[in-house]
Design brief:
Elements: H1 4-15, H2 19-26, H3 30-44, E1 49-51, E2 56-58, H4 60-88, E3 90-98, H5 103-116, E4 120-126, E5 140-145, E6 154-162, E7 164-168, H6 170-176, E8 189-191, E9 199-205, E10 210-215, E11 219-220, H7 224-232, E12 237-241, H8 242-251, E13 255-256, E14 261-262, E15 266-273, E16 289-290, H9 305-319, H10 328-333
Parallel strand pairs: 3-4, 3-5, 8-11, 8-12
Antiparallel strand pairs: 1-2, 3-16, 5-15, 6-15, 7-12, 7-13, 9-10, 9-14
Amino acid sequence: MQDLNDIALFAAVVKHNGFSAAARDLNVPKSKLSKHVARLEEQLGVRLLERSTRKLRMTEVGRIFYEHAQGLLDGVAAAEAEIAAVRAEPTGVVRLACPIGFTPMLADILPAFHRRYPGVRLLITASNRRIDLIEERIDVALRARDQLDTDSQLIVRKFGEVRQRLAASPTLLARLGGITTDNLSQMPTLSMNEQHPNDVWRLVHATGGAIEIAHRPVVGCSDFLILERAAIEGMGIALLPDHICERAFRTGALVPVLPEWTSGNVMVHLVFPLAPRPAARDPRPHRLSGGKSDQGAGALPRGRSEASGIVRDLMILLRTSRPYPPRSQGILKAQRAPVIGMGRHLGNPETSR
């Protein structure tokens, strides 16, 4: 078997039509090139190049050998490129945080994300408490808030907006009669405020006006699953995100209440830390890298293309997410049938910091 370096240097001499030009391009001594080509000719037992003081030309056997050698070198380069691509694929642990209401969306996109990044292991924290990405070593978080994050330590990528709409079961509305903004506060309500017995809804009219409705909810909970089920069962009027309302309106499980009044726009976005965290703070495996050990700090490689690529792919997948398949509509029509796992979509705008 011939030395691949000898073959590569011979091909370089042919490509540059001389030893001097090849030596300059490769930044190696001309004498070294001559030595390697001479060794290759000796091993093959044939002369590949005719040398003279004025020019260099290939012999016929040299031309044949060069054609095959070039194919070999191209194949080696292609193989190296494939290996480099595999090694460049992100690997390691990514810690992702989201409000509980985002879990159906994540469940929907996880298979596609895993196919795109098979070497990435996800650790998902689903919680409605306020999470500090830096202190808790979270790599990327899904958030839904009235305003985008302005923290200078975070990179923010907005990918959508959502509104919340008033909804109730048809049986409850038939029992309550006409509902207006004047008597809404006296009606049974369902709230995301789980900390206080009183709550205030801030609603915006389609024409631009705004009002505040102070009320005493029958149920206060930050999980849309519970609020949706309670609304379907006729326990009260709920303020629910677009996606939940739209599917429930289609099935008839819920109907709009004061449809001209909604919450303000809530901006859905992804955030991730701007700078890597010191490895000394956490010795556990925790890094996204190109084929290297995942010991160290930060799963998303700050300042590298993998980080923006992963966040971009998350955004694309979330935009096309269908967390509530059509078969769920039959479940909603039977009000007493279990709807576990069907009622969450976008989380509390004040959570998952």
